[in-house]
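Re: your question from the hallway

Yes, I did run it. Sequences:
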Amino acid sequence: MSDKDAAFVTEITPQSDDFSRWYTDIIRRAELADYSPVKGSMVIRPYGYAIWELIQQALDRRIKKTGHVNACFPLFIPEGLLKKEAAHVEGFAPQVAWVTHGGEEKLEERLVVRPTSEAIIGTMYSKWIQSWRDLPVLINQWANVVRWEKVTRPFLRTTEFLWQEGHTVHETEAEAQAETLKMLGVYKDFAETELAMPVLEGQKTESERFAGAERTYSIEALMGDGRALQAGTSHNLGQNFAKVFDITFQGRDKTLQHGWQTSWGVSTRLIGGVIMTHGDDSGLILPPRIAPYQVVIVPIPRGDWKETVLPHARRMTEELEELGIRVMLDDREEHSPGWKYAEWEMRGVPVRLEIGPRDIKNEQVMLVRRDT
RNA sequence: CGGGGCGUGGCUCAGCCUGGUAGAGCACUCGGUUCGGGACCGAGGGGUCGGAGGUUCAAAUCCUCUCGCCCCGACCA
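Structure:
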């Protein structure tokens, strides 16, 4: 196959030519996401969203297993609340979207569309926490947030993105620090186990620290172009927010104390990380745990295949599904087997099963792995 | 936000320099033959050239402004 043919076949720029272009080509060709009419905002298409749902499910299990529960806080935050924590507002003010009107009426107080939820959650926590017996508070939320970024890239940095943000309050500084590192560990294990994405964990420098945090830790993944990608962060907030949002409790020693907080999050950026960690010039390579289809079955349409091959392929599909495996039976007649091979390789399906009349006769099946 | 590049059917692009109101390949629709690595033949549908203004008898083409996208840098999940 000549280079020209290869280019035609995949329509994907080779990594060695232009890694960034390769990245955006894959997203478009594999139908993970598409650009929207809203500047900097992308549409996550069904195939891409299915990956996010699998990431959510797997991570949500881990978050709950470590004692956290889910809740949902408002999208809008009153300007005054965001401004309470000085470092926090300074860090986020340049990239918040403002709501100034309700219908035709100008608002008395402007609202920000949440860039992160420390302010609104801290405000609520101050109402809910009275005693050391109320601690720890271990809440997570799955949400969308908005940051008015000047430069955007699909999945890696978009104006609006999906994420989870955990917000906890503890009795002591040591407990908060332990929680911060525990969740960093959860992220590391999640990235390496579910996403097959090796990461390096460590503490961020002062300039990279989360606005308002005492300490910020992150997991960093290595991309195919040799660059690092911040794939998740865990912050020890100390008492910074507790002091301005008045999160106090009466301690075991009967004195009034401020809570010790953490917050931690990962976002749809993880999908970008997966693409850049595993993908090759033929397209996407998806780790089986988060692959919308783990197996694609391609029947060979020959002779009386509809009476022989197809029923067999359907039975195989059912049997695999009973085992909990996500299967795509591609029995479309408008595409040739060769076309389907290339298509599903491009979309990163881990395993392909080819089954034709010969296989039925010989009681065999052709299996091809995407990652080899 | 600084530097660079680019906006022409769904996609990739040619045409622009040397103005004369649009082409190719792929994709799509219909019919037929095919199908073990992106099949082939025939017949079709679809764009007024990112947007606005200007120059001109005439603008995809020249000028101005503007919007958007991509890459590098700075910043961020």
